[in-house]
Design brief:
Layout lengths: L1 H13 L14 E11 L9 E11 L4 E13 L5 E14 L6 E16 L5 E15 L4 E12 L4 E14 L149 E11 L12 H13 L5 E6 L6 H23 L6 E5 L12 H7 L1 E11 L1
Parallel strand pairs: 10-11
Antiparallel strand pairs: 1-2, 1-8, 2-3, 3-4, 4-5, 5-6, 6-7, 7-8, 9-12, 10-12
Helix pairs in contact: 2-3
Amino acid sequence: MKTILALLLSFAFAFGASPLYAANNAERVELSPFMGYAWFDDDLSIDDAPVFGVRLGYFLTETWEAELSGYLASSEYDGGNDVNVFSTDVDALYNFPGYGNFLPYLGAGVGLAGVDPQGESADYEFTANAAAGVRYFVTEDVAIRGDIREVHIFDDGDWNFIATVGLSLFFGGEMNDEEPAPAKMAEPAPAPAPMAAPAPVDSDNDGIVDAKDRCPGTPKGAKVDSSGCELDSDGDGVVDSKDKCPGTVKGAKVDMAGCEVDSDGDGVVDSKDACAGTPRGVKVDMRGCRIDTDGDGVWDEEDKCPTTPKGVPVDKEGCNVKKVSIKLEAEFDTGKAEIRKESYPEVDKVGEFMVKYTSTNAVIEGHTDSVGSSESNQALSQRRAEAVREYLIKNFDIAPSRVTAKGYGEEKPVATNDTPEGRQMNRRIEAVIETVIKQ
């Protein structure tokens, strides 16, 4: 539609000096070949396509016209098969004279549309349409015509849009644009003495006389341009008299008072906000970004230790933490699952560690040498791990869910099984327990 209006305006400027031809067209015939483009409803599965056709109209009065039209559009289905769409319409148009060489109109009518797929019989449907358009008269018998219309298919409920431009040729009728012969008049009386021309009126006192004032009623004292319209010096869409923030950056979004918008309410206007969407209420820097004063990766509003030294590891609350751990090593006699007395101090250290650091959990690993079958060694290693687990639970009141026993049998030796010393080292319990604490 914008393209068609642009074409019509181009013709209007090209023939702007022409005399007025859009006069009374009563009893005239209009023949109008046209071309344009059709946008089909998605439900039809037909590609949009160029359209060609012709209209034949008859002006019943100066304003009412009856018109018969037909058009054809050659297109394709979405699947690629060719299809022809054609329609014949009968319309009633109401014209609006009085606009110089322009003759706008509105119209409505009914018709019959056909869809003719290649290799198949055509399908016909009744339609209704509504139209709007304008003619620009180049001469009294020739006009440029632009037309847009919506076409509704009754049975399917589909809506289609057609925009066209064409040439209208007029025949017959009487334009009635000749001036009547002047009546005989008596000798004129002597001309009166010339009167002084009335002083030009400026009703809103903006310095622009009413005849040239395109914006009457300007508020008193407001600055205006040569057309009498209020100035908007910074081009933000808010006139200067209502602009509380003159000099707004070009292109910036503003509110009704002409002030830049701060969408996230952080005190930094959108045009300068490098971190849009900041949570409401948090402190931000000059760029609108949240602040991390000590550079530990935790925003100030979430940082419970705001002066952490740079480079020090911190937890999610921004506080300095350190890693603490303890290692358990205990040995057993051959074929036995009882903890050696000399290993009690080592196991006690683990118990005390877990009591102190309640967030820790432990996996006790049991191991054996290669003496005996792998099945018996697996069972023995599990019993050894269970023995340490039960010791910790019983003697240090540690929750059972915090301690797990896992037997590995002879799968993970730490020394050779070919010597008594090596086998003794392989009959062992191991565990490494770690946690992180605040400094």
